[in-house]
Amino acid sequence: MDSKEPPTHTNNSSMEITQSLDEDPLNDGPLISPEILDSAIKKEFQKLPTSWAALLLSLLHVAFVCLSAALAVYCTILSSHRSQCLSLLQGLESPTVIVFAKVCLWVLQVAFERFVHRHHGRVRSRGYLRFYRATRNLKTLPVYIHSAGNAAVLMILAAEPLLHGVKNLSVGLLLGVLALELLSVPCLLLYSVRVQNFNRERPEPDVSQEERSHGYPGNAHPLCTETGFRDGSNLEDVVEKQADLIEYLQQHNTLLSKRILSLTSQQMRE
């Protein structure tokens, strides 16, 4: 008597996959709309709204230095107008008013740096790593210049009792510090130009540009990317570039995983 072999189930693997998907707790929640995931994966270009702030801050800085110089010359250096200035400034000396205004300008510089840092963090998360690194020093250098100016002003105020031997020496030094702080204006203008060029070009993320350049070897403008350490290259820069790229790719892979999970769940429930 021939023994019958048990029937083989060819769809065991598919049943196991179905069971594992049904038991997956991630599928119990509401499905994410494919349109939402597609828009998250393929984000439209978003302009940086920071160039106007840099231009406005530059104009305020130049106006502050010009008004401070006029006030110091009219009210302090030309002592004949001292009584008029005291009545106009509510009894305050012109250097005191200049220092107060300088502190307000420094606060605006710090607020601008925080505003720019927030938007550049978003640019970095969207994959524009080269632009983020190219403008990193430009957006922070004005704050450093004004902070160094504040330290110089404090030294002048502390040494003011020793400077009474030379007439108006402390005022001259104060105006000199304000003039040196104008070095931050070219940084702001250069930053504004780079942001406007970035908004006008509307580039794709760095990874997409690199893939396109690799896909078309005859490209007239190949990207010079550095994926490893070479002789003569800066190891810290290479590590930083790789860390930024890995962070962006991790975020991108997370969105892709959610998209795949959503499509698989919809297919299994149909």
From TrEMBL:
Predominantly, its location class is membrane
For this UniProt record, the keywords arranged alphabetically read as follows:
Membrane, Transmembrane, Transmembrane helix
Segments passing through the bilayer: 52-77, 97-116, 137-159, 171-193
Q: Which domain of life is it from?
A: Eukaryota
- InterPro entries, per database record: TMEM192
Q: Name one Pfam family in it.
A: TMEM192
Q: Where in the cell is it found?
A: Membrane
Look up and give the membrane topology term. Answer: Multi-pass membrane protein
Which GO cellular component term is one of those annotated? late endosome
Region Disordered: start-end pairs: 1-25
Q: Where is the composition biased (Polar residues)?
A: 8-20
Q: Of which family is this protein a member?
A: Belongs to the TMEM192 family.
Q: Name it.
A: Transmembrane protein 192
